Amino acid sequence: MNVLNSTSPLLQNRNITPKTSCLTQWKHLVKPCFILIAILVFSAPVAYSLSELIMIARHKSPTVSNLIKIVILSSKKSRTMIKTKSSTATKYVGLPPLLDAPNSNEALSPPAALCGKRIVGYFAEFENSGLTRKQLQMLTHIIYLFAIPRNGVITIVDDRSLRKFEEMKSNAREASSTLKIMISIGGHYNSRSFSGLVFNETSRTVFVNSIVSFVEKYDIDGIEMFWMWPRYRDKNNYLMFIQELRYAFTELQNKLNRKEDFVISLVASSNLNLLFNLVEFLNSVDFFGIYLFNSYSYQVGPDSPLYGGGSRNVDEIMKYYICKTGQPSKFNIIISFHATYWEGTDLPLRDDSDNIWKVNESGRLAVALRWRELPHHKWNLENIKFHNLTKTSYIWIPGPPTRFLTLEDEQSLREKNRYVADHNIGGITMWTIDQDDDDHTLLKVVSSAELCTGEEKNTIKYNCH
Ligand SMILES: *[C@@H]1O[C@H](CO)[C@@H](O)[C@H](O)[C@H]1NC(C)=O
Ligand SMILES: *[C@@H]1O[C@H](CO)[C@@H](O)[C@H](O)[C@H]1NC(C)=O
Ligand SMILES: *[C@@H]1O[C@H](CO)[C@@H](O)[C@H](O)[C@H]1NC(C)=O
Fold it and tell me: Does the keyword section mention Transmembrane (predicted)?
């Protein structure tokens, strides 16, 4: 709703859904759909969790009919989850205590941690998996998605999510003494009220106090602001808010006699003109996560290409941010653990061409699938091909109907690891670790990144002129 009628196509989100075929099963779904629409309209909290579950609805024009399609897809999804008894998609009933045995050698952590770089995992209320000690020890930071502002006070939407968050916290504390635990505030669909919350001193004080109380109450290490699309008129207010939050965190730190600073991170989009006074922000912020996925439903092509395709590849975007600030150590790239596919398109990737996106005027919905779900949906991982120019992985099925699926796999992730190391970037964030398979195949690759190359913290590895 709010996001759907925004002005930038980058606001559009991607839907995580099991199948396209539910689109054709209209009749069975008319009733649940109607109910869900009613829920979306009348009940903000439910709408919040639904929309975050959907994540990123990719569609060309933000019309109501698109919204309906997305709602159907997600209703089908939740029902599937409840019905399925398989270990990968069981209904969430509370995180179990950590089952794997404690390690005798204390403080296992990713190699990147040795030089202060970051391996960050998102853990989401809308996913359905537990956590293992091994997973937690492969991270430097874990960020729970989401808390949302309600009447200026940040809240976790419901009891179930709050329980999941608290269990994540206690599991994380048990697994590692160095792992930073954070909460993300906002999200794709929940950022609308931020503008008002940072608008004047009074509202900012309420908002800052609520964040500080939350952090103190739940004894966590910091927060992330997931406000991806602040408007031009918000820029000074947002900055003042962050500065006031930093000040309040310092006071809390003194009050608690805490050694380490509280962490503040911000998410920024790959749309380059939306964050204005970046350098001033960086004085109060520990790091920025740059959200890099391709968000254009009607542009069929690779997700997060390192190179190629003009100015929207990872290399160009990171170069922009790092040249503008001179502080590579303060950036993380955000990568996705879900694949995206389109049906009935041409193959967008040709080895000899820089033209890596195909515009499809028919505006067909892209469909997103968790990495862990791919085999259940008959995607054979042995068919994954690698595209050398963009350094991305994909599956192409000549059909009919033709299908193009873009994804991160071990090979493309290794390329991203190398890119981050070579460009002295501060770290990698994964959206989300619970979309990985039970062997943590993708997390293992990211976590093993050798990011400590001996460079000074802020040596710039781009030619900025
Ligand atoms: C501050 O902003 C809030 C809403 O953002 C508004 O309700 C309130 O009247 C404003 N206060 C002042 C003093 O402008
Ligand atoms: C868009 O997709 C349709 C099939 O859905 C296909 O017939 C058409 O050629 C595609 N258009 C472009 C420009 O690729
Ligand atoms: C892949 O791309 C690199 C440049 O990024 C080039 O040096 C190499 O020859 C290419 N390999 C193939 C097999 O095309």
Answer: yes
